[in-house]
Amino acid sequence: MCATTTRDSRLGRRPPGCSCLRRPYSTRAHPPHPHPFPTPPVGISTPHREESSTNVRQGEETRVTPHEFEAPDLQKLIEHAFPELSPEQRAALFVGGLAPTGLPTRPEPRLLPVPTTVRGFRVRLDLSRTKPPVWRRLEIAGDTTLPQLHEVIQAAMGWTDSHLHRFRTGHDPYAPEFLTGFDLDEGDEGMPEDGVRLDQLVADEGDRLWYDYDFGDNWQHVLRVERVLDTPPPSPTCIGGRLACPPEDCGGTWGYDELAAWVRSDYDDTLRPDVFDSVDEGRAWLPEGWHPDAFDAEETNAWLAAASAEPGPVGEELASLLELSRDRGSRALRDTLAHPAADGPTDIDDDSAAELTEPFRVLLEAIGNGTDLTAAGYLKPAVVEQIAQHAGIAEWWIGKANREDLTTPVANLRALARALGLVVVRHGRITPARTIARHGHDPQALLRHIAGRLPLGTSPADRHAGWAALAVAACATPSEQWPDRIAEILFDLGWRDRDAPGALPPSGSPTLGTLMLLSGDARSGRRLHGVNEAVAALARRIIRGRRVGEARVGDSRET
Fold first, then answer.
1. Cβ(165)–Cβ(8) under 8 Å?
2. 138 - beta bridge partners?
3. What does the alpha-carbon distance between residue 92 and residue 98 come to, in Å, rounded to a whole number?
4. Is 109 in contact with 195 (CB distance < 8 Å)?
5. Strand ranges of the sheet holding 237-242, from the earlier edge strand across to the other edge
6. Of the candidates 60, 44, 177, 254, which has an alpha carbon nearest to the alpha carbon of residue 52?
7. Which of 203-207, 493-497, 515-519 has the lowest mean pLDDT?
8. What percentage of the chain reaches a pLDDT higher than 70?
9. How far does Cα 436 stand from its chain's mean position?
10. Which of 107, 184, 288, 367 is 20 to 30 A from residue 550's alpha carbon, by CA?
């Protein structure tokens, strides 16, 4: 697995040495589908720079230019990409591109003074060029910053925050605009959106603000003030709306119109968009349950609440990772830590502690004060058999379960116990660590020691995957969903599988293995299901950052 980033608002910096660039996706959607709909040709220079003018395929660079399109098609695409340009400007662009001197000069945005009293605004947010219009009516506090407003718009509309965005103060494409963190990292010069408040841009009924999203599909939104509220709402609220958000990467209004007509016809094959070879292919590409006429204000407000929620206090290392994710424009880790369940209890009763630590106590009992390993460094068959029997592995493992090299669950148990500092291998013997020999009979003490060692590993990959696993477990995620949720967080942070860069990265880590073992993985032999409340409580205890001395039995680092 390697870390990389993509030209996207949600992933900002590329670590040295990484070259696999892929578009990320949000935790609110499945991994990105292949883009089935045509978008404006990337060879045309637009005011925005999200879509690269090159496509890398099998190591060769190819460039798409306007000359590869027929004149009527190109003219139509220019009208789609530049609806506000005059016919003369479009003609100039069509025949060879506007010279720099022919383009309007983009002025700096002008801000209103910060009001002495915070008011609220009732606004209508319209998705331009959709017929019938897709819109939302929102109530928002005036001190909402533009980065916060971006998240509000994403949640209210139903976008997945998978592309770049831009705020501007006029309808003209060269109107004053604000730069995102990504733009600044790319070297653009101008006014950053950070710190700019909504009430510095609008003040009265009828005032407007423009928001562009996904410069390939070219979704343009207009936010218009309908009423000024004397009292600002405590949080963003949706009080009305119409129609569902278009699917991501559907090709802009052209593709959306085709999809909407097809779905409204109950998937009539004669109306099926040509990009799909069959009805089944098209339905599989669409987001599950998507219908253009669907809108649910209650669901929208749930997304708004999630978008505005902030995680509680966490430990120092996780806080730094959370800050890194924010710098990259990523939401997956923050949304996970902000889940209400992450604020749940951390207490674990004695019976639960005994159940969680059972496999490790079985191992410690089997090795006693210490036992010799085989010449090849494995546990002896009698010890393997005892562990397999008492830990429940023998009930489902195929084979005699008396050789460590042929009994993977026992080998994994020993490896995790050593990584957790429970056992020490030295001079051909395996023995309990000194602190464990003194306190290992106490499940609560053993659990505190394990908590103090998690997450396991020293490499960035293991640490990030470990914290992701703990965050997912802490918010009471059903265990069968752990791998996907962890992989989504890692993908959002920029991690990729070198063998399949476009797919989700592997979620496995020593920390995940430990959580699965604590959840009863050794006894079942099957994929875990449901929520183990004791494991969730343990994960919360760890992510909240208790002091190391309080979290484990002792400070021994024997190996």
1. no
2. 123, 238
3. 6
4. no
5. 165-168, 208-213, 219-229, 120-127, 134-141, 237-242
6. 44
7. 493-497
8. 78
9. 38
10. 367
Tokens of 317: 């290392």
Among the listed residues 484, 455, 417, 448, the one whose alpha carbon sits nearest the alpha carbon of residue 543: 455
Q: What is the Cα gyration radius of the chain?
A: 28
Q: Distance (Å, rounded) from C-alpha 81 to C-alpha 6?
A: 23
pLDDT at 514 over 90: yes
- Give CATH 3.10.290.30 domain extents, the chain: 120-243+293-308
Q: Residue 523: pLDDT band by 50, 70, 90 thresholds?
A: confident
What does the alpha-carbon distance between residue 188 and residue 179 come to, in Å, rounded to a whole number?
8
Q: Does 149 or 182 have the greater pLDDT score? A: 149
Structure tokens at 17: 């040495």
Torsion over CA of 129, 135, 141 and 143, rounded to 10 degrees? -20
Which long-range contacts (C-beta less than 8 Å, at least 24 apart) are formed by 316-324? 316/545, 317/463, 317/467, 318/467, 318/470, 318/471, 318/543, 318/545, 319/545, 321/464, 321/467, 321/493, 324/493
497 SS3 class: strand
| CATH assignment, 120-243+293-308 | 3.10.290.30
Tokens standing for residue 98: 């506007």
pTM more than 0.70: no
> What tokens were used for 254?
């052209």
341-395: per-residue pLDDT in tens? 898 999 999 999 999 999 999 999 999 999 999 999 999 999 999 999 999 999 9
Distance of CA 32 to the CA centre of its chain: 12
